[in-house]
Design a protein that fits this description.
By secondary structure, the protein is α/β, with parallel strands linked by helices. The chain has one domain: 4-Layer Sandwich (Nitrilase/N-carbamoyl-D-aminoacid amidohydrolase), CATH 3.60.110.10. Helices cover 21% and strands 29% of the residues. Strand 4 and strand 5 form a beta hairpin. The chain is globular and about 55 Å long. The mean pLDDT is 98. The structure holds acetamide. Acetamide binds next to loops. The site of acetamide (ACM) has 7 residues, from loops.
């Protein structure tokens, strides 16, 4: 099956969701793709000093203004969109990603492994990793940024039959892009890591984000890697069905050969 997947990298403006949305919308104009992945917290930026900042920009689902705008964009452009955002659920906040589909269906993932100061402001995800259908029934799983550190994240998605791992990110450590090669290889799945760029400063705090957004095939090979500065969208045609094949040699299957009773997984 031919399926075009895309990654978007940019530098969001801190606490400026309307400007960030407008920029994403103009970057997407004229795109021809089936699935695109945007960075983590794409509408708000990342370097929060206090929870009140998150309260200003967090959205409830499905009533959120920008959530509905992304739904409209998905329908207009006929592509599935995965983007990261701050989610409000009553008085709690989650670092979430949304999958919005052209047919109006949607799914929300709440980041399970919070990184660094995120722990001060967000609740850890309260629902297990899941797989959902994107455009044309392609099976995708979402994980967010630091979830890469835990091999169980990608493994759970792959065991639930994800073909593509969609991975919005705001990466500050230097290891993820290389590590994701192994996540794709060991699970035999495509992965799309959409990172942001730039340095964000908030008072005393600042973070430099590493860019290098990438799309990997089910062998862990780079199909696309952006540089650490550029803003833009890159697309590539893949065959998601290749991720259904877990055969390594005539005698070995990456999943059927697993020996869970021999593993130590407390
Ligand atoms: C991260 O999880 N945003 C590093």
């Amino acid at each position: 099956m031919k399926y075009t997947v895309s990654v978007l990298q940019f530098k969001p403006l801190f606490l400026q969701p309307q400007k960030n949305y407008d920029k994403i919308k103009s970057m997407l104009s004229g795109i021809s793709s089936d699935l695109i992945v945007l960075p983590e917290l794409a509408l708000s930026g990342y370097v929060f000093a206090q929870q009140e900042e998150i309260a200003q920009i967090a959205e409830s689902i499905p009533t959120g203004q920008f959530f509905q705008a992304f739904q409209g964009l998905s329908q207009k452009l006929n592509l599935s969109i995965v983007y990261g955002f701050a989610e409000r659920d009553r008085e709690l906040f989650y670092n979430s990603s949304a999958l919005v589909n052209p047919d109006g269906s949607y799914h929300i993932y709440r980041k399970i492994h919070l990184f660094y100061r995120e722990k001060l402001f967000f609740e850890p995800g309260d629902k297990p990793f899941f797989v959902a259908e994107a455009k044309a029934g392609v099976r995708i799983g979402m994980m967010i940024c630091f979830d890469w550190q835990f091999p169980e994240s990608a493994r759970s998605l792959a065991l639930k039959r994800a073909q593509i791992i969609c991975h919005p990110a705001n990466l500050v450590l230097p290891w993820c892009q290389e590590a994701m090669k192994i996540r794709s290889l060991e699970n035999r799945v495509y992965s799309i890591t959409a990172n942001r760029t730039g340095t964000e400063i908030n008072g005393e705090m600042s973070e430099y984000f590493t860019g290098q957004s990438q799309i990997l095939n089910q062998k862990g090979e780079l199909l696309i890697r952006m540089n650490d500065q550029e803003e833009g969208i890159y697309s590539v045609e893949i065959d998601p069905d290749l991720a259904n094949n877990k055969q390594v040699t005539e005698y070995n299957n990456a999943f059927a050969d697993r020996r869970p009773s021999m593993y130590y997984l407390p």
